[in-house]
Fold this sequence. Notes:
Elements (H helix, E strand, L loop, with lengths): L9 E5 L2 H10 L5 H16 L2 H4 L4 H6 L1 H7 L13 E5 L8 E2 L1 H10 L12 H15 L11 E6 L5 E9 L3 E5 L8 H8 L5 H7 L5 E5 L1 E7 L1 H19 L3 H13 L5 E8 L4 E3 L16 E3 H4 L2 H9 L4 E3 L2 H7 L4 H8 L4 E9 L2 E10 L17 H27 L4 H19 L10 E14 L2 H30 L3 H19 L5 H20 L4 H12 L11 H30 L3 E7 L1 E8 L1 H4 L6 H25 L9 E7 L4 E6 L4 E5 L4 H9 L17 E6 L2 H16 L3 E9 L10 E7 L13 H8 L1
Parallel strand pairs: 1-7, 18-21
Antiparallel strand pairs: 2-3, 2-8, 4-5, 5-8, 6-7, 9-10, 9-14, 10-11, 12-13, 13-14, 15-17, 15-18, 15-19, 16-17, 19-20, 21-23, 22-23
Helix pairs in contact: 1-2, 14-15, 18-19, 18-20, 18-21, 18-22, 19-20, 22-24, 24-26
Amino acid sequence: MRVLEQDFPLDIWISFSKFFEQYRSYLDSDNELLKDRARRILKIVEEYPELEEGIKTEERVQELLPQIHLVLEDSFAQILQSNEIKIATIPFNNTVLKSSKRYQNIIEAAGQNFEPQIKNLDEDHYFIMGCSIILNTYYGYSIDFRRPFFYDIPDANGIMRHYRIMYNGDFIEIIKTDKAKDITDADVAELLDNFDNVEIWKKKFPPYSWVFKGIVLANMFDVTTDVSLSDFKTSLIKYDKTEGDFVGSFERIFRAIFNLHEIKVGFSNYNPENQSLERVPFKNIDSYILYNKYSDCCETALCSGTYDALLEQSTYFAISDVRKYQKQAPNEIMYKNLVAQNIKSAILAPIKSEGGMLGILEIVSPNKHELNSINANKLQDVMPYLVDSVLRSKAKMENELELIIQQECTSIHPSVHWKFREEAKRFMRSLVEETPISFQEVVFDDVFPLYGQIDIRGSSDARNHAIQKDLVLQLNAISKVFQKVLETEALPIYEQLEYRTNSYIASITEQLEVDTEQKIVNFIKKDITPLFKHLKKRSRDLDALIDGYNEILDKNLKAVYKHRKAYDDSVMIINKKLASLLDQKQDEAQGMYPHYFERFKTDGVEHNMYIGESISKHNSFNRIYLYNLRLWQLQVMCEMENAYYQMKNDLPVPLDVSSMVLVFNTSLSVRFRMDEKRFDVDGTYNARYEVVKKRVDKSRIKGTNERITEKGKLVVIYSQKSDEREYIKYINFLQSKNYLEDEIEIVDIEDLQGVTGLKAIRVNILYHKDKEDKEFYTYEDLMKELN
Length: 787
């Protein structure tokens, strides 16, 4: 199948023989569903044997697309259609046999008739990549000719996005024809030394002398951010290389301009905040004015004449004979410093931009009279370029300062701090060695996640109820004022405002609508508050009544904040208590085996943990530590529940909580997001874990309206039968320790968007009335005892 009008060592035959081999092996499986699936697929090849033998023409491929799609169906999981960017194709080509929904959406957004082209593959490299397939697949040479390939595809907004292509070659077969030449070790050695000589490759692999039989699966990943960052870093590196010998390059320039081969160049920054001079914090950049100081006040560091010339008149100051000036002003620090450095003549010039002082250029010479007011005029030709360079250097310095602030002031968990230190050392070493590199992202591969939350139930309803009661209190107080006003001045407008006030009271007594709160706030702000300021002046009775109204208002909010404060205080107390307990327990857990831990306060407390070899650093990780942490997590969740219900009756608003842990049965990669200063899962498949975390606690038991989480119960969410068996063992142990009740409930969870097949173990938690209490209670029994 000639897919392109250019040479290629392989004659392409689209075939699914490897797929059919796999399905034939399933016929011996004990899994009836798998066997049934295999029979249906193999029936297709019986009707269309060319799908296995190979198809040569584009036209026939199009005719057999329905059958091809059925054969490839298992390779394109329905649940990942909107997530994966995946196609079935042939090597390094744009022919698409089947694609995921997300890929189709991407191509559709790119515009009509858009056809993606591999960005970095020219005609010669295309041929050599074909040869590499033969060498690796047929001859078994472990030579890595691969390189990253990219598609550049514009999105709906016209922004160019970059997708990296990863090929899966498990479903191909390379067949040698009579036209093919035998490849020896000597041939391979010659090819290794001639990668860019395509003619040698064509000599060893004549065009279309081999047969490619099969297809490849290609996964694509959106790497727009990475490519953009790489381009940005490359620009910085280029700039660093240009400016690496910052002083040396300027000295060469000035030596040529002044025709003086012994002069040196120094710089000092100007700090406008305290009107001082500071050293430039870059390697090998001296300041001859400051000498052995890091910084000094301008008035101290400069003599009076220099200060006036540089800062007041914005012109250069030439010193043709330093020792002469020093004798005339023996107490001036500037001359003492210059003499101490054997400087006998100098020119100091202000570096200014848009009227603002940036710093001082210092040109110095060991020879008397070499630098003077006459040759100082040569600076006029170079100062504009110097100002531009200094501006860029200052911008770079500011960026580095901000980077240090962000790094130093952002909390990094101790368990992963070592990885950041290693990367920071590598980055710092490159700066000192003047071989600048970018600060790499910190990634921890093959770690196991644990997630848990203890959530305040009905928090939205409780908050709304508090708002509702506060508004009614405030409106009733307003209504009382109008009742008093109407006794003395029965104006229709006052009657209308009282009517509106009572109408609002009636409308929110039963239920608070979404927009009603804002309407009432606007009514009070625009109509009531200005009127009450006016009415206060009318009589003593009104003055006292309105003062009483103002006293019930919060000084900052200018609204009643009684019930909402009680709710907010309750949430704050709950979060503080539970977070403190979790932190205390977490310190103990770190002593068992180091792992990453973070927690968040919302309406309740959530926590993430990651454990694995890449975090612990030492070659000591064993799954027993994962199992231990899972058991520890369940135990701590029970203790947090007990801690909460022991303080519930002391809260301003007695609320209920529910607890949940999420089990993810495979390891994943965790990447530190530099922009957000937090860890997040890495990769499309791993992102499923985050999706489940965000959605599952609000889900319901399949076929019912009952929420999966419930007060008084510990809920474990999982998807694999092996997880169920593992966690039931932990639960049985905790039952023996009187943390949990004996009855275990296993339920199916309703399908979430993009996630199906989740289940939950639910078991009642046993409670104590207080820490000293040795009796155990269910949630219902505890509520009866406490109330």
